[in-house]
Design a protein that fits this description.
One of its GO terms (molecular function) is 3-hydroxyacyl-CoA dehydratase activity. The chain has about 260 residues and is an alpha/beta fold. β2, α1 and β3 form a beta-alpha-beta unit. It has eleven helices and ten strands. The protein folds into two domains: about 190 residues, Alpha-Beta Complex (2-enoyl-CoA Hydratase, Chain A, domain 1); about 45 residues, Lyase 2-enoyl-coa Hydratase, Chain  A, domain 2 (Orthogonal Bundle). The protein is globular. The longest helix is centred in the N-terminal third of the chain and has 16 residues. A six-stranded mixed β-sheet has the order 1-2-3-5-7-10, with helices on both faces. Strands 4-6-8-9 form a four-stranded mixed β-sheet. The structure holds ligand A1D88. The site of ligand A1D88 has 21 residues, from β6.
């Protein structure tokens, strides 16, 4: 467990949990940004990290967005420097060869929603609300929200949420594909950890390839993407995990995957 108070990292049985702990709303302040930089270095060194979960402390907010009180400074010096570490963090979440799950324990607004969008899966507590309300401040999302939201839920719905700044319920988010699951009050982290520990025992190479193929393939022309998929199928046919999976099936026993 890192000794920071605004961002904590715990790794238990190859499942990492990053908790944004910056009361009262887990805003992405300068202190959070600096701590995230350290945490990013730590997780990059982590040996057998198989799944990562990101959540907020408390029950009010996952993350209520960028630090609005810091904006006057950003207006003076420009927003790029503040965005850089988040872009690096979000790129890590998207490129890491492991499933990344956002456990939405509370409001996910602005930069908080953008952090959730950079994860592979989103599990939302039933009371959670999500949105990109930047337009109500005369702003636009600056941590990838305009791009990831449109790719995830389609351009027209994304424009509707961006134009209006509407904050939607977890159920509405489920309907449009913005979250994967809605879970009972107060159980987002518990459910995310259940899924994380299940995935951590799964075929890690297969999940890494599936993540990479979806993330990279959907930006390519179909035939190129299909070729990339076939190249990965050829690679996976040479893994021990496939041998183990087939042998376990034939011998009617649970597989023990070694992630190689
Ligand atoms: C590139 C990225 C851009 C962005 O992310 S832009 C920001 C997008 N986020 C938002 O627009 C959310 C703004 N916040 C709110 O809408 C509300 O707040 C909440 C719904 C999160 C909570 O509302 P309630 O329960 O009524 O509490 P409260 O009095 O509004 O807030 C408690 C304290 O938290 C501060 N705070 C809230 N959100 C932020 C924020 N995003 N950045 C900095 N501070 C924030 C407030 O000012 C206040 O502080 P004090 O107690 O000193 O008055």
């Amino acid at each position: 467990m890192s000794d920071s108070k605004v961002v904590e990292l715990q790794i238990i049985e190859s499942v990492g949990v990053i908790t944004i702990n910056n009361p009262p709303v887990n805003a992405l302040t300068l202190e959070v940004r600096e701590e995230l930089k350290k945490i990013l270095m730590e997780i990059r060194q982590a040996k057998d990290l198989r799944v990562l979960v990101i959540t907020g402390a408390g029950s009010k907010c996952f993350v209520a967005g960028a630090d609005i009180k810091d904006f006057p400074k950003q207006m003076e010096f420009g927003p790029r420097e503040n965005a850089t570490i988040y872009k690096e963090m979000f790129a890590y979440l998207e490129e890491a060869p492991i499933p990344v799950i956002a456990a939405l324990n509370g409001l996910a607004l602005g930069g908080g929603c953008e952090l959730a969008l950079a994860c592979d899966l989103r599990i939302a507590d039933e009371k959670v609300k999500l949105g990109l309300p930047e337009v109500t401040l005369g702003l636009i999302p600056g941590l990838g929200g305009t791009q990831r939201l449109a790719r995830l839920i389609g351009q027209s719905k994304a424009k509707e949420l961006l134009f209006t700044g509407t904050v939607i319920t977890a159920e509405e988010a489920l309907k449009i594909g913005l979250v994967n699951q809605v879970v009972p009050l107060g159980t987002a982290l518990e459910e995310a950890l259940k899924l994380a520990h299940k995935l951590a025992k799964g075929a890690g190479v297969a999940m890494a390839y599936a993540k990479q193929l979806v993330n990279k393939g959907t930006e390519l022309p179909l035939q190129e993407a299909l070729e990339m998929e076939m190249q990965h199928v050829e690679k996976i046919f040479r893994t021990e995990d496939l041998q183990e999976g087939l042998d376990a099936f034939i011998n009617k026993r649970p597989p023990v995957f070694k992630n190689r």
